[in-house]
Structure formats: C-alpha cells, structure tokens
From TrEMBL:
One example of a Gene Ontology biological process annotation: fatty acid beta-oxidation
PANTHER family: ENOYL-COA DELTA ISOMERASE 1, MITOCHONDRIAL, ENOYL-COA HYDRATASE-RELATED
Domain of life, source organism: Eukaryota
Any GO molecular function: delta(3)-delta(2)-enoyl-CoA isomerase activity
Protein name, UniProt field: Enoyl-CoA delta isomerase 1, mitochondrial
Higher taxonomy: Eukaryota, Metazoa, Ecdysozoa, Arthropoda, Hexapoda
A Pfam family that the UniProt record links to this protein: ECH_1
Length: 283
C-alpha cells in the first residue's frame, strides 16, 4: 500500500521532464561580465539532474567566484524548460556507498557556499525547479522566474521522502513558516504566479535574458553599499540554518546513508525510475 501510494504520487507530482541525464561536454559554464557579475550556467542535459559530477563543478565554480571577488552571481540553466530537476535519482539507487557519502557531503558544501556566500546571489529560473532545483534557487538571495507552465517547490513527501532539516530551514527562511509547513507536508508544487504570491520568487520574467537582466538589476542595488557590511549582515541573518547543519553535518550524512540502505526505499526508487523511463519512451 505504501509503495503503491508512492508510485501514484510520483505520477501526479513529477513535472513533465525526464530525470535521466546523459554525459558529454562541460557540466557548467562560468562567465564574468564587465561589471563583475558572474553567470553560472548548469548544462547537464537534459534536465540538470544534480549528480556528484555536476555538484563538484558547481562547488568549484562557487570557489572561483569567491576567489575572484565577483560582486555577484547569477545561477541559471542552459535548458529552455528546466532549471534543475533536483538530485539525480541514480546516485541513490543501488549506490556505491563511498560515492554516496561524497555525493551528499558535496551537496552540503554547495549549500554552505551558496546560502552563506559573501557575494550577492540571484537565480534566473528559466524552467521547472522541483526538489533540489528549488533548494538551489532558494539558497540565493533573489529569484526571478520565467513565466510559463513551470512549477517550483520541495515535493519530497510525495515520494515518501522526508526533506532534510536544512532543506526545510531554507524554505522557512524564504517564505512564511506557515506557508512552508503546508507546502512541505503536501508536496506542493507552486505555479509561477503562486510562487510570486508567497515570495518564493521575487519577480517574473518574459524569458531567460529578461530574468538575467532583472537579476543584474538586483545585484546593482548594492553598488553603493559597503560589501563587507552587506556580507556580514546577510550571514548573521542566515547564521541559524548554517550553524544547525554545521553542528549536525555527520548526523545528516548518516541519516541519508541509512535511508539509502532501507529495502523499501530502494524498491520505491526502482518504481520511480520505471515511471521516468515510461515517460521518456513516450516523448
């Protein structure tokens, strides 16, 4: 009964995207414009599923942005319809546990670097952003989403998964706690207009170029604000969630690995993979 409900919910809540990704070519593109704004583009086709390799490249890029003292970062996607489909399910299905450990700690690192960065961050969300894709965008300070039939949210409970505390903390830091509690428990996927209404996103855009332009406008608001004061203020406001994960980082990893070892979890992941394969074959 439990597994059947997971499958039914997977069919209902999975966006019309494929979460099976192929390799080939650089996984990210990092450019810095003349104004010192870095644009980090995820480009792991078809849907920027966050596997270990992509997360490593994002982590390295964030280090580079910090090292080069860029005044701001815009995170976006090369896909025309998907920002990021979230964590790559193949990293969790019948995993090599040494790799799984590196996968999860790298995800933690990316969150620390993005959520707690010294530089200004904005997300140009040019498509669907479920689960881990939503986490990345919420970790930024400002979000602009392209209008269309796209959705965004943390939908883990629909698959019988409990989002980690730091995922929840990030959502509670972004939208009112009552809205976050309802969204997290119901696996709510917000439309663009709904996301704007609760401030899960800050603005809408006509297309990706418009989204990037609006993100740059946000970053430019800080041109006359001393950067050190701005950065410390931001980090103090975000200190609670950051310290909570720092203190519980090993326990968080152990919980993830324990989850992967559960037979019912592996069975539900296998069923979900079959659903994705069926969707893929129909496209």
């Amino acid at each position: 009964m439990f597994l059947r409900s997971i499958v039914n919910n997977a069919k209902r809540f999975a966006p019309n995207i494929r979460a099976m990704s192929s390799q080939g070519g650089p996984l990210v593109d990092l450019t810095v414009d003349n104004d010192g704004v870095a644009i980090l583009t995820m480009q792991r086709p078809p849907v920027n599923s966050l596997n270990l390799d992509l997360l490593k490249e994002i982590s390295k890029s964030l280090d580079e942005v910090a090292k080069n003292k860029s005044k701001g970062l815009i995170l976006t996607s090369s896909s025309p319809t998907v920002f990021s489909a979230g964590l790559d399910i193949m990293e969790m299905y019948k995993p090599d546990f040494k790799r799984a450990e590196e996968f999860w700690t790298t995800l933690q690192d990316v969150w620390f670097k993005l959520f707690g960065s010294n530089f200004v961050t904005a997300a140009a969300i040019n498509g669907h952003a479920p689960a881990g894709g939503c986490l990345l965008s919420m970790s930024c300070e400002y979000r602009v989403m392209v209008s269309g039939k796209f959705t965004i949210g943390l939908n883990e409970t629909a698959l019988g998964i409990v989002a980690p505390t730091w995922f929840m903390d990030t959502m509670c830091h972004t939208i009112p706690m009552r809205e976050a509690e309802y969204a997290l428990t119901t696996a709510r996927m917000f439309t663009v207009d709904e996301a704007l209404k609760v401030r899960l996103i800050d603005e809408t855009a006509t297309d990706k170029a418009d989204a990037i332009s609006k993100c740059k406008d946000f970053i430019e608001k800080f041109d006359n604000i001393p950067p050190l004061a701005r950065a410390i203020t931001k980090q103090k406001i975000r200190q609670g969630p950051i310290e909570r994960l720092q203190k519980n980082r090993k326990a968080d990893l152990d919980e993830f690995l324990s989850y992967l070892k559960h037979p019912k979890v592996q069975q539900s992941l296998e069923m979900y993979i079959q659903i994705l394969k069926m969707k893929s074959s129909k496209n």
